[in-house]
Amino acid sequence: MTIQERLSQTALPLVPWLPDIVRTLQEKRRLILRSEPGSGKSTLVPLALLEQPGSIVMLEPRRIAAIGIANRMAELLEEPVGQTVGYAVRMERRVSAATRIEVLTEGLLVRRLQSNPELPGVSTIIFDEFHERSLFTDLSFALVLDLCRIKSDLKILVMSATLDCGAIAERINESEGREGPDRVPILECPGNLFPIETEYQSLKIGESTVQCCARTLHNLIDEMTTQGGSRGSSYVSHQRDAAKGLDSQHKPAILVFLPGKGEIRSVVEVLGDVGPEWEVLPLHGSLPLAEQRRVLQGAGPGKGRIILSTNIAETSLTVPDVSIVVDTGLVRLQRYHLRTGMDRLSLDLASTQSVDQRRGRAGRLGPGRCIRLWAPQDERPAFAEPEIRRLDLASLVLECALWGAAEPENLPWLEMPPRPAWDGAKQLLIDLGALDRQGKPTQRGKQIAYLALHPRLAMLALAGLEGGNPVLGAVLAALLSERDPSGIENEADIRLRLEAFSDASQRVRFRFVIDLAEDILNRLGRHEHHTTQETETTQSMPSGTKNQSFNKDTSGQFFHCTQAMMEEAGELLARAFPDRIGKRQESGVYRFMSGREASLRGRLIHSEWVVAPDMDAGDRNGVIYLAAPLPEPLAMELLAPHVSKELSIIWNGLVPKARETTMAGRLVIREEIRKCDPAELKGALPALLKREGLDILPWDEEAEAYTGSQQLRGQQPHHGPRQKATARQLLDRIRFWIQHQSGEDGPQRSRQWTDESLIAEADEWLGPFIWNGKSNGSGPIITASSLYHALTERLGWTALHHLDESVPPLFISPAGTARWIDYHSGEPIVSLKIQEVYGLSESPLIMGIPLTFELLSPAGRPIQITRDLGHFWTGSYAEVRKEMRGRYPKHDWPEDPSHAPAHTQVHSRVAKS
Hints:
Elements: H1 3-9, H2 18-28, E1 30-35, H3 41-48, E2 55-60, H4 63-76, E3 85-89, E4 92-94, E5 101-105, H5 106-115, E6 122-127, H6 135-147, E7 155-160, H7 165-176, E8 186-189, E9 196-200, H8 209-224, H9 234-243, E10 253-257, H10 261-271, E11 278-283, H11 289-296, E12 304-309, E13 322-327, E14 330-337, E15 342-349, H12 352-360, E16 368-372, H13 394-403, H14 419-432, H15 443-450, H16 455-466, H17 470-481, H18 494-501, H19 511-525, H20 563-576, E17 581-584, E18 590-591, E19 597-599, E20 609-616, E21 622-629, H21 632-639, E22 643-652, E23 655-664, E24 667-674, H22 678-692, E25 702-706, E26 722-726, H23 727-739, H24 755-760, H25 762-765, H26 784-795, H27 797-806, E27 810-812, E28 818-822, E29 829-833, E30 845-846, E31 849-850, E32 852-856, E33 862-866, H28 869-874, H29 877-887
Parallel strand pairs: 1-7, 1-8, 2-5, 2-6, 3-5, 6-7, 9-16, 10-12, 10-13, 11-12, 13-16, 19-21, 29-32
Antiparallel strand pairs: 3-4, 14-15, 17-18, 17-20, 18-19, 20-21, 22-23, 23-24, 25-26, 27-28, 28-29, 30-31, 32-33
Helix pairs in contact: 3-4, 5-6, 8-10, 13-14, 15-16, 16-17, 16-20, 17-19, 23-26
């Protein structure tokens, strides 16, 4: 029987289209194929292409799907897997010299391309389920398009049930310069044979998704075990026929799509006992491969099944007997938080593309039914967000560097990697030693890539090898590369997983981790120039490590976790995850270099330092899933390259304390409160004054100060004694003087004496007078005297002499009394009792501005304010005299005060200004 005859016997919808698909691909070398779920594209198309020369490589995004599809194709050929059709997934490969179709996961294709870019013997590469857009799907696609520039005869087929065909075709056209009739063809082929009834059930008020899902399942079980009913659809008739009697060959299976493993567990708990006729099975990526295969094998006679699945069953996988799909419409996606360098899981709405794929699962075997747990008008995104937009790009960037593409622009991407994520990944690889500063791969980078792990985990394995404990490094890397299989809950200590791993009774649970750890050990032991192609070959570890290899004797003690190994776990993890070293805070959470805080559960809650390789950054606060304790000296050693010291000044008014903070990124390692050094305070002055304002300084406190040589009075200038003055008086005089200077040759400019200038330059003019210039001190750093002297120093002695000549601080009255002149308002004002100006016939001038007199009564109450004393004497003084004589008869109230009584009269000369 020919291959075509075998394919025709399947009666799958795609059979009539196979000749067109083969011919078009042969002629154009490129083809985009879109066909509905259940059409048979994953199994029929590769087999149909066997008529053409060369071998075929088909990429599948999931391991279980790759194995299942290869087995189905081999079954159609009536051959064992490994003959014409084989597969290769991580840790498992079934091929032979006769193999012409090999189903791979994308990571293995990347390794094969890096090892031998020419892909000898390969004529066709098929990208199946391309819509999933995993990180390595995009990378593989870019590398293959780049390869086609030198291997022009290579054929590329892209397939999916839900695909933006136009965008993919256009990208290939652009990359290869295809125009006109040579443009990439797109084939749309029919798929689903059977109708699918779709209904919507919104959540009830106060009902959770889990509760709604359990309620829907109970209703479905009741329907299928009842022979009556009012619905007359083809679906109902089909289901009733299938459900009659428990001796039926197969009962229908219900496939339920839930966002994650936690929701699956919750539905099982809420669902409760559904009776012996039904089997409830989980299906998610963290299940061992054997358990995933069990789900795909179908139920026994008379058994119905409820499959609670994540989006792993959305495409490629065919779960037997499914005719009902219950879809929550939710998906939990991993996102890389660039600022923290951590992943976080977010609960998102599944795209229209995804829910259509899920719906299609119900109509593969007969009329189906899809129950959607949301309202039909609810909006959702059209396409799922590809991983290249939301995941850590470290593995991708390393592979590109090994390919020779140092920058993203060097490859023909379907979608260009985000530049910030690319640069962040590049910096991580430089920090790990995988790339040099120019972005070229180092020998360490080649070792990391060869281990086929995330660069961090590869570093973990290498740290174990270099530290003399390769087994521990390999086991930790294997544990972290897979979802935690231990079943341990509410306990973050990774050492408990090591204990469980060393327990022979847990062999089945840790089967894949055991195999992966052994594979890592084998790779660590291979020669550095050994081919990177996946093989079944196993070789010995380097010398000195034989006694630490796995012991698979009949006792089952394949790994013994000693206490010494337990203590080394933290060190190895910290060398691969230095940015995940966290310090316990007073609140009980752990803080990391990024500033992110996260909590953990279990016996590590009192550890001062931990390293957390597995955690969720969360929206605001994270959760640590796996961690190990870390000694403080080791934490400090590993954080040392990132440590800096920050000094901040704590102010209580003008009394300072220094807070010295040792930081690793945004992680506070220690704080010390100590006395301040004047040099530290000098630089802090502008910030203090900007925050608090100049009024924090002691402007109005009296200081011992030389008040100048010129006093405003009716006699010759004389040198005055040291008197009590305030810094504010001096500043007001300076500002008045500057304001009324004429010409451009004034000794001071206004901008130097504004509040803004004084604040901005405080370190220069005020800094030298901290604690009066002493090298240390306590109490306020600036006193009234030091502030006054700082102003005079800023002004300069020459300018101070001009100031004293032009803007006197004191007015000496004819009576001989000295009164401060107030310049704060911008005009000179003196306040004194009226008797003190008897004998003064007119207001003196200061820099051409008349002195304003605030005249007071003998009791000190205001009588008159005047800038023209002569006009006051001849004018309103008569009324003032009349009133004041009545109130203060004992005081002298002359009719003409400009001519003072003999005992007060003095020469009435005005100081020149």
